[in-house]
């Protein structure tokens, strides 16, 4: 997306100019970037053009762009994390309110669009939990989690063709074989157990990988590269979920690569 690229480019520019003291060169290319980005963070074209008439006002414009990008990005990141927590707890009303609170203050269109998408997704998952009907526009695993919550609330699971297809799609991502899947789908109890296994494997794998990442980073930063490598080796010794095995392998390759300039 061109808008996202502009925001990324100007964020790098802000770091260079505002944090590292690099000069702001107001050439045609720079003026065009700042003019575009200003409008992308809800600063009018007229105000941007006025600011770009001098170096001092251009610096003020750059600081304001930087503030809006930084606050918007952080606000959205924190809100998404809170939404995930609340949804895992089954509090979809609270999750949606988090995003409504973001939309009440956010002015940057790009971040508003992301918040609106998250709000729509949360509302859709709430409907899946309430109705038991799957939504083809929503991601697979969150829908499984919503159905699992529905079952925990005492509602019976309906082994529809849509649910069977969903379980067949997601089972391989949790390292569950086709044979195991088809056997589980012969009964309602088996389908419920399969759903629980898919969700628990991902939950455990994510927790294990994030814990190892934290330890790996601490060891790497302290200079213990071998200790950092061992964190990922330990993950690979037990991990079966392909996504997290791949992530651990990538981290290990990164640690094995020579440092720049070495």
Q: What topology does this entry show?
A:
Blueprint: H1 2-19, H2 28-40, H3 45-51, H4 55-88, H5 92-105, H6 109-131, H7 140-152, H8 161-170, H9 178-184, H10 188-221, H11 225-238, H12 242-256
Helix pairs in contact: 1-2, 1-4, 4-5, 4-6, 5-6, 6-7, 7-10, 10-11, 10-12, 11-12
| Shape designation | flat
What is the radius of gyration? 24 Å
Uncertain segments of ≥5 residues (pLDDT<50)? none
Tell me the major beta sheet. none
- Summarize model confidence as the mean pLDDT: 92
Order of helices and strands: HHHHHHHHHHHH
Class by SSE composition = mainly alpha
- Total helical segments: 12
How many beta-strand segments?
0
Percent of residues in β-strands: under 5%
Helix content: over 70%
Question: What is the rounded distance between the termini?
Answer: 36 Å
Could you characterize the architecture of this molecule?
The chain has 262 residues and is mostly helical. The mean pLDDT is 92. Helices cover 77% and strands 0% of the residues.
In short:
By secondary structure, the protein is mainly α.
Pick out its properties.
262 residues
